Amino acid sequence: MTDSANLRIVSLLPSATEIINCLGLTNALVGRSHECDYPPSVKDLPVCTEARLNSHKPSGEIDVDVQTLMQKALSIYEIKTEVLERLQPTHIITQDQCDVCAVNLPEVERAIAKLTNSHPQIISLQPDLLNEVWDDIERVAQTLGVDSPPALDKLQSRINIIDSKVKDKSEKPTVVAIEWTEPLMVGANWIPELIQIAGGTSLLSVKGKHSPYISWESLVDADPDVIVIMPCGFDLERTEQESAVLTQHPNWNSFKAVKNGKVFIVDGNAYFNRPGPRLVDSAEILAEIFHPQLFNFGHRGKSWKVFS
After folding, report:
1. Is the residue at 176 inside a domain?
2. pLDDT above 80: residue 160
3. In a 3-state reduction of DSSP, which class is residue 184?
4. Is residue 87 located within the same domain as residue 204?
5. 305 in helix, strand or coil?
6. In this predicted structure, what is the pLDDT of residue 5?
7. Quick one: pLDDT at residue 73?
8. 302 in a domain, yes or no?
9. What is the extent of the structural domain holding 63?
10. How many domains does the chain have?
11. Which residue has the higher pLDDT, 70 or 139?
12. Which of 26, 168, 296, 301 is 20 to 30 A from residue 96's alpha carbon, by CA?
């Protein structure tokens, strides 16, 4: 066990920062990634990473830039080693789940090898399923010397509230979660589980697997009851902008979901694409969308809205 009073934690991914917060260790954070923005207080911390691509470009151009960097075996993110040297962290939390989402483990190991004033312990997260996210919370807690059960119990109790209301419903809408608009990609990993918890049936993706690119033909054939658009890294406003390209496709108006006003945009950056505590908020958002007569958690208009 670690003496939590002497912790100096650097978090290199937003979900880890949120895990630290739910464990009551936010005051031990001394540095963050350029994308860590929750809780808001962490925005004042030194930034330890930067992106090698321009995230303000349209979705199609971002995808090309990402593929180009990966083909050249270059990381999409760069670590500011000089900042780490100055901060002298006891622990660095990173991930080895998605090279597109955040700095990967090998990049962190190379950066740490250059440090002379500190020898931080690396905690690397690699969740693909919800239970693996909860396991990561427990592992981080154990490594940092705090108890995880209170935090995990609270998260599970919120999931149970949803489950108790939807488990006996015979009508569960078919759902496609779009994680990228150009080219088309659907949300996988823990997203199908969130859809199931919220009382829906996920189409075109497999839980625990990486998010796949799909063709428009596949989406047309699926013709889901509900379409939820949740681009990775984009807030609600940016998602609305990037979703406009979908409406230009000749098949768009033929979808059942479009005809019935069942296309929704959500804040994928804050919720669905961060494997941390706010995945429970994500389940609540989906529950409001799928079964508005049963749920009102107060997310509508703030974290999701109808796309038209």
Report:
1. yes
2. yes
3. strand
4. no
5. strand
6. 72
7. 45
8. no
9. 4-147
10. 2
11. 139
12. 26
Residues 100 and 44 in one domain: yes
Taking 3-state DSSP, the helix, strand and coil percentages for the chain, each rounded to the nearest 5, stand at 40, 15, 40
CATH number at residue 9: 3.40.50.1980
Radius of gyration of the chain, Cα coordinates, nearest whole angstrom = 20
The pLDDT of residue 84: 93
pTM, to two decimals: 0.90
104 secondary structure, DSSP code: B
Query: Are residues 283 and 169 part of one domain?
Result: yes
What is the pLDDT at residue 107?
80
**233 and 166 together in one domain:** yes
- Rounded to an integer, the average pLDDT of 152-168 is 95
Residue 165 located in a structural domain: yes
Q: How far apart are CA 241 and CA 59, in angstroms?
A: 10
| Alpha carbons within 13 A on the beta-carbon side of 57 | 13
* Token code pair at residue 132: 């693996």
**Tokens (6 digits) for 41:** 């207080």
